């Protein structure tokens, strides 16, 4: 597009008239003086190149203040886009730079270390703000390097990063401490969540006759909060960041296998050094094999007894809360499931489930006894069995 612009033009004109009886006669009319600023002729898409300008492009602040002017620190901003499907992740990258006399070209690269390009090579942005749907490694810090280059080849480089790039649903499970209960009105459970992105403040719990999203037939969805899991007490070293071991090997994706490692403490160190996406590990004492996982036992992974395998879950990056329902009209022979609905700040929603609790108020039926001398029920409470868990023991007469 060619532009022809005359910024300023001045003219001084004059005329003289003579009035004669019934008529007017013009005796002079003309331009006395005039001045015009030189005309500018230029294509608006062509910028002049100044060889004597040694400066690279100026990096502008990334935020705008209340006066609509750019303020704050100079650099770039990157963040993961909220409220997208977990399988269709995207990030937004912003960087503002200008050069008074030449065009500026923006390019970016992504790496697992500052200045790295091992995740994505140098790519042109095409503008100051860029939204990119992309599948990137999760659970580890990612670093963006953005370069602004003018037509003389001079560059200004800035960096920004994300602690994690999340493409998975919140993982976890609902643990029912009692698979069977004879309490007539009480249910308890523990909600355990492992997630590398921050969680929202409010979540939901419910009780139903089935596990999952629709398991709210008995008690509807109610708000609940989750807390960070503390460090394990009475343990030193890397194992203090993990739970008490559970029997079995986790059947889930293996991030890494290391062997031989002489103790589970060394396996715990391996998991800690791997990054925040390592949330559990399985260790076999016999073969000294260490398997690192990005999941915990739950809906998408389960424990299977295998040799001398033990499974440890990582604390500190997880969340948990205890759930207790009182004064429920529980029914004999019914299995109840405490379900949880968990949401992280990206808007990813997952329903966590457990194995449920079966309510049983009656003792086993012995069948036909022909020479019966006595048959009665009583509340033996903790005297019924040495293996019975004596918490909230019912006074109901249900031992034969």
TrEMBL record:
Residue stretches making up the Apple domain: 235-316
Region (Disordered): 47-66
Pfam hit, one: PAN_1
Protein name stated in the entry: Apple domain-containing protein
Entry-linked PANTHER family: OS03G0226600 PROTEIN (PTHR16897:SF2), OS10G0105400 PROTEIN (PTHR16897)
């Amino acid at each position: 597009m060619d532009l022809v612009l005359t910024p300023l033009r001045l003219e001084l004109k004059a005329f003289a008239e003579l009035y004669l009886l019934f008529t007017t006669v013009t005796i002079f009319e003309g331009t006395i003086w005039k001045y015009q600023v030189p005309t500018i002729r230029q294509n608006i898409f062509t910028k002049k190149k100044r060889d004597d300008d040694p400066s690279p492009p100026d990096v502008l602040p990334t935020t705008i203040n209340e006066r609509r002017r750019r303020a704050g620190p100079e650099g770039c901003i990157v963040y993961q886009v909220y409220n997208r499907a977990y399988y269709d992740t995207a990030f937004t990258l912003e960087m503002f730079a200008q050069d008074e006399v030449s065009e500026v070209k923006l390019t970016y690269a992504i790496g697992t270390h500052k200045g790295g390009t091992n995740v994505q090579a140098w790519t042109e942005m095409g503008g100051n703000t860029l939204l990119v749907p992309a599948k990137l490694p999760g659970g580890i810090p990612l670093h963006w390097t953005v370069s602004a280059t003018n037509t003389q080849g001079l560059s200004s480089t800035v960096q920004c990063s994300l602690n994690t790039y999340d493409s998975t649903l919140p993982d976890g499970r609902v643990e029912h401490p009692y698979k069977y209960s004879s309490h007539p009105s009480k249910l308890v459970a523990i909600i355990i969540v492992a997630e590398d992105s921050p969680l929202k403040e409010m979540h939901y719990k419910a009780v139903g006759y089935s596990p999952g999203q629709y398991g709210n037939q008995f008690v509807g969805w109610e708000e609940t909060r989750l807390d960070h899991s503390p460090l394990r007490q009475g343990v030193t070293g890397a194992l203090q960041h993990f739970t008490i071991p559970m029997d079995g090997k986790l059947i889930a994706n293996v991030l890494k296998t290391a062997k031989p490692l002489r103790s589970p403490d060394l396996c715990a160190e391996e998991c800690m050094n791997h990054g925040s996406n390592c949330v559990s590990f399985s260790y076999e004492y016999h073969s000294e094999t260490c398997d690192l996982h990005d999941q915990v036992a739950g809906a998408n992974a389960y424990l299977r007894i295998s040799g001398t395998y033990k499974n440890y879950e990582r604390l500190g990056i997880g969340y948990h809360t205890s759930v207790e329902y009182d004064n429920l009209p529980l029914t004999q022979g019914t299995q109840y499931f405490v379900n949880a609905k968990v949401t992280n700040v990206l808007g990813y929603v997952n329903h966590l489930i457990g194995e449920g609790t079966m309510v049983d108020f009656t003792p086993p039926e012995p069948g036909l006894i022909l020479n019966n001398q006595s048959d009665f029920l009583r509340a033996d409470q903790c005297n019924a069995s040495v293996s019975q868990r004596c918490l909230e023991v019912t006074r109901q007469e249900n031992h034969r």
